[in-house]
From TrEMBL:
InterPro entries: CbiX-like (IPR002762), Sirohydro_Cobaltochel/CbiX (IPR050963). Keywords: Lyase, Metal-binding. The lineage of its organism: Eukaryota, Viridiplantae, Streptophyta, Embryophyta, Tracheophyta. This is Sirohydrochlorin ferrochelatase chloroplastic. The keyword Protein biosynthesis does not apply. SUPFAM superfamilies: Chelatase. It comes from the Eukaryota. The keyword Endoplasmic reticulum does not apply. GO terms for molecular function: lyase activity; metal ion binding. It comes from Zea mays.
């Protein structure tokens, strides 16, 4: 496991500030990418929600493959806006090959043109107790839809997938 270097005595405050969210931090939220345009557009909606609910003013969407913008495109767009650090955050549930290999390699390639800008690839969403609430909310909504009490959710809208099979 990688450990964070300990600060020199008397410098703990400035050391911690280096790792705090800064005004010039950018977040690139990366999903897999899809041939299905509706799926790609959903990432844009998530990016807008993330930007509205957090203190990050620069948040860009990127797709690992199959769609644009790419990680390289989003990284460059962040740099054009004057960022001092890029935070690449995978919009993935599990720490698989894409998180371990592909996204770090694509981020490293994107950073080559901007060697003065540090970046980090964060952990994927993974296990988090709020995921239980999200899944339970989705289940309850879909059951209400099947019962005829609500319209399809935005994920299922127009697909006909949210129905009771027998």
């Amino acid at each position: 496991m990688n450990s964070v270097p300990k600060p020199a005595l008397g410098s703990e405050t400035s050391w911690r500030e280096d790792f705090a969210v800064g005004d010039k931090d950018a977040v690139v939220i990366v999903d897999h990418g899809s041939r299905r345009q509706e799926s790609n557009l959903m990432l844009n909606d998530f990016v807008e929600m993330f930007r509205a609910k957090t203190s990050y003013s620069i948040v860009e969407a990127a797709h690992m493959e199959l769609a644009e913008p790419t990680i390289k495109d989003a990284f460059g767009k962040c740099v054009q806006q004057g960022v001092s650090r890029v935070i690449v955050s995978p919009y993935f549930l599990s720490p698989g090959r894409h998180w371990k290999q592909d996204i770090p390699a694509l981020a490293a390639e994107a950073s080559k043109e901007h060697s003065n800008i540090p970046y980090i690839v964060t952990a994927p969403l993974g296990l988090h107790e709020l995921m239980v609430d999200i899944m339970n909310d989705r289940i309850k909504y879909c059951l209400r839809h099947v019962a005829g009490d609500v319209d399809e959710c935005t994920v299922c809208a127009g697909t006909g997938k949210c129905r009771l099979y027998s």
